[in-house]
Amino acid sequence: MRRSLSLAALVSWRVLALAGALAGATSAAATPSVASDVFTDQQKAGIQKVIHDYLITNPEVIREAIDELKKREEAAELASREKAVNENGDKIAHSANQAVVGNPDGEVTLVEFFDYNCGYCKQSLASVSKLIESDPKLRVVLKDFPILGADSVETAHVATAARMQLSPAKFWEFHKKLLSTRGHIGKAQAVAAAKEVGADMDRLEKDSNSPETQAALKEVATLAEQLKFDGTPSWVIGKEAIVGGLPFAQLKAKVDNMHKCGKTSC
């Protein structure tokens, strides 16, 4: 819908410019509200016929306009995300409301926004695990971003409470166990995974609905909104913010480039 409206605006502006030329207007850049008043019905009909005939003769122009619009929107979205990364760098990489695994003092930080019920996040677990095992200088930040329904939200509350009491190594064990669980999961599976790794169950129950847990999840949701993340997994590597699953080779290449030149693309 957003692209259709933008395309309409783009075409309307071109129409007005052409109309101004055809009608001998003093300025082809007249605003729509003014330009629409300076043409007679006969002129408008003539303009519409010229445009109609041109598009029928050259229909590829529509595709070119859509492609160009898509490029502009993607460029604007990338710029917006980079701006959000610059403005929220500390909260993205160094907030107290997140889990850190791998090397806590690593020279490169990989941030993942995930949902425990996200199939692509489950697939990405193998890649993240492999990266941690193969790169002793990698720091991985895990941000629970539950967007796939009430079960995901309940799971996130339990996971956040578990993170508050478990060591990074134990939380990583919990995280892998829960994310590796087949099928749809909810609170029961999260509680069972926490119990298996030795969590204090009374404290877990208390912390699951604490203000601290609510604040932590709200912080992640706010960051995701600012970064325009509308799906999981989503990533932040250096200044680059990415939505969607990435193959291991692509993810590794970005991390390697960060080591090499401080950017995801050298």
Automatic annotation (TrEMBL):
The signal peptide, as residue positions, is: 1-30
Start and end residues of each Thioredoxin domain: 69-260
Bilayer-crossing residues are none
Keyword line: Disulfide bond, Oxidoreductase, Redox-active center, Signal
- Which Gene3D superfamilies does the UniProt record give? Glutaredoxin
- Entries under PROSITE patterns matching the protein: THIOREDOXIN_1, THIOREDOXIN_2
Entry's Gene Ontology molecular function annotations: disulfide oxidoreductase activity
The record's Pfam families line, in alphabetical order, gives: DSBA, ScsC_N
Q: Which InterPro entries match?
A: DSBA-like_thioredoxin_dom (IPR001853), ScsC_N (IPR041205), Thioredoxin-like_sf (IPR036249), Thioredoxin_CS (IPR017937), Thioredoxin_domain (IPR013766)
Spell out the PANTHER family in the cross-references: DISULFIDE BOND FORMATION PROTEIN D, GLUTATHIONE S-TRANSFERASE KAPPA
Q: What is this protein called?
A: DsbA family protein
Q: Which organism is it from?
A: Methylocystis parvus
